[in-house]
Prior knowledge:
The protein has 150 residues and is mostly beta strands. The chain contains 1 helix and 10 strands, in the order αββββββββββ.
Amino acid sequence: MRSAERHVSTAAVVTGLLLATGCGAGAADIAHHSSTDTRITAKVGQRFTIDVEENSSTGEHWYLVPPEPGDSVVRESGQRLRGADPDLTGSGGRRIFAFEAVGAGTTLVVLLHCPVAGSCVGGDASPVPRPSATAGGPTAQRVTYVITVE
Length: 150
């Protein structure tokens, strides 16, 4: 094995060991939960996400809605859509809601699932989306997560 190849190989092994042992893990420190994990336990200082499937190209959306989580227990730290192309019909992805556990206690996180276009009103122009009273087809549903921080 040539010297340059040996250095590349050694670097790959060292990088793998650092990732496996958690050094510089970053994203590995975040606990990920699916839309069906409605009871979440976290430790103070821990970051976690609620990951839900979303296909915005067909009008499907998820929103964080009131009541807001108790900010002395959990703080929202943003959301993003990953793996979807909103201009390509049928291109689904994942909406990721990120949080940080800031203090011991229990609080609620409420997400509104709007499965198709027209199942909710608001959200873009209105600060609080809500289920549509006139929607035909699938109806919007609220999903409540009980978050306990120890």
